[in-house]
Write a structure and sequence with these properties.
It is built from 5 helices and 2 strands. The chain is mainly alpha-helical and 161 residues long. The chain folds into 2 domains: 109 residues, Non-ribosomal Peptide Synthetase Peptidyl Carrier Protein, Chain A, CATH 1.10.1200; 41 residues, no CATH class. The radius of gyration is 30 Å and the shape is elongated. It is found in: Cell membrane; Membrane.
């Protein structure tokens, strides 16, 4: 039971989720300050209200409909989404694209900076199993020898004097 719990905690997606929650909670104060300090006063000035939350209100009997409050929440959501995308998602996607491009080009990667992927391990296991069984391992397109390389060496030079 303990080992199952340890395996669950050590999964990458659980750790990533925990980091996302902590970063999101810490970043909420920054986003609230931007919304309350910059956007709320600008939009409230347009609607002649002291804050965005108090703008665009419609009296409805004893209650009020507050469209400004909804607009403030939407602006805050869009700011959080933009920062998460441009500060975290986009740079990580670029890093993964660069790693994939370097792997396809055959550039050796530093194992500390670029850990081995599941696909790399599975390919290595497949090749080892094929070698143990005496079968020829399938060759990836990037590992394929140049065409006619073996036949040119065995036939000797093509020119005569």
């Amino acid at each position: 039971m303990i080992s199952g719990f340890k395996e669950f905690i050590m999964r990458g997606n659980v750790i990533e989720l925990a980091v996302a929650v902590v970063i999101g909670a810490a970043f909420t104060a920054v986003v609230n300050a931007i919304v309350d300090g910059i956007f709320n006063p600008l939009i409230a000035a347009i609607f002649n209200a002291d804050t965005l939350k108090n703008s665009m209100t419609i009296p409805l009997g004893d209650a009020e409909l507050s469209f400004g409050l909804v607009l403030a929440a939407l602006i805050q959501f869009l700011l959080v989404a933009a920062v998460v995308y441009f500060a975290f998602v986009m740079p990580l996607n670029k890093l993964k694209e660069n790693q994939a491009r370097r792997r396809q080009a055959g550039v050796p990667l530093d194992p500390k900076k670029n850990p081995v992927t599941d696909l790399d391990l599975l390919t290595e296991i497949r090749d080892l199993l094929a070698a143990q069984n005496g079968a020829v391992a399938p060759v990836a397109a990037t590992d394929a020898p140049a065409p006619f390389a073996a036949s040119a060496e065995s036939e000797g030079p093509k020119h005569t004097l």
